[in-house]
Amino acid sequence: MVEGQSVDHMVLSPKVSFYSELSPAQRVYPATVIGVMAKFRELYKQASLSKNYETLYASNRNGLERPATDRVLEAFYPVIDKRSPVLFKSEKVLDIQRVLTLQNDLGFTLMLADVKEGWDVINKIKAANAKTFLSLDLPEEKKEEKKDDKAKKEEKPKTITDLEKEALEKRKADFMAKYTAQPSTFQKAGITFGFSTLSAKSKDIPSNLRRMIAAGLTEDQALAALTTNPAQLLGLSDRLGTIDNGKMANLVISDKPYFHEKAKVRYVFVDGVLYKQEVKEEKKGDKDGKKIEAKGSWSYSTETPQGTNTGKIKLKNDGGTYSGTITSNMSDAETEMKDIALDGNKLSFSFDYKMGTNTVKIDVSLTLDGDSFEGSMAVGTFGSFPMKGTKDPGL
Prior knowledge:
This protein has helices at residues 7-10, 33-59, 71-74, 77-80, 93-106, 122-127, 147-155, 160-180, 182-188, 205-214, 219-226, 228-233; strands at residues 18-21, 86-89, 110-115, 131-135, 193-196, 251-254, 265-270, 273-276, 296-304, 307-318, 321-328, 331-336, 338-343, 346-355, 358-369, 372-379, 384-391. By secondary structure, it is of the alpha+beta class. The protein has a domain at 296-391: Lipocalin (Beta Barrel).
């Protein structure tokens, strides 16, 4: 859904920033975060020397060797001249502190990207005058215990292990509260921020925004962080951020206020081109008013960059508690499904998939319609892919 016939047409403004992150290389230098920081310093200082030499050579070439061309070092020139900021991916508090140290040592203009744990260093961020983009990714919300389960636990005397678990759960809850309230905390500190979707799953963004609003951010402030603030921070306010004459018509139209839990996007304009969204109405049961049943064997397919992936989903229902397995044509093994939930006609679950030496968590969200379903499969940071399937006959 991008206007433009080529990659160049899709780029609104090139060289807005110099993207960097502290991710180490695999098995080669720099293989540690400290090594990455050292390499960044080395390249920055080499670029400064190279730029100075080019300036000297341009003013008087007599007796001087022609400067060597080095695209890596030349990429730093706009940063050294402060014509372009460094946009540093900085999720954790330690990442932020390390990036701020680099900025203090070298003096470049800084943007912090995809910040997840910045509440303890707000004063440092403010003092550095760093432009900030807060992550729209949030930890999964813990489901509340049923009253019956809670009552059963309270009947038994608490052991030391129980008390330790309670203390751990309290620390987790306190951390979650800070995580969710981070935008509100930045707002109260007077820091203008935009939102980043770099590590967020698209299906979670609306609910995560509602959680942030419930934690103290107003709807107007949330809307500004999605529109006017990022346009201002990126220097694109003359083209984006507001609905105005002469600006790009990038609009989203929903059938209810955007932050409403039941809001559905109906129309999207990309650079003035209209895209109508097909929205299926939610079904709470079948035609006879019966509850939708997901148990059985389902055949599915999903389109990925590697091609079409097919397999089976087998679901069991034990008194309202679902369990099951999923297979794939890329592996013969049956993988256990986790966090299976059926809400009306919405089925969701997750499972782990091994990619070489790494394990990736895959989140699946489906809408059931009789003996078929449609939905998506979110594969970590690799993106989200369409998924559809049908129920196997007789099962």
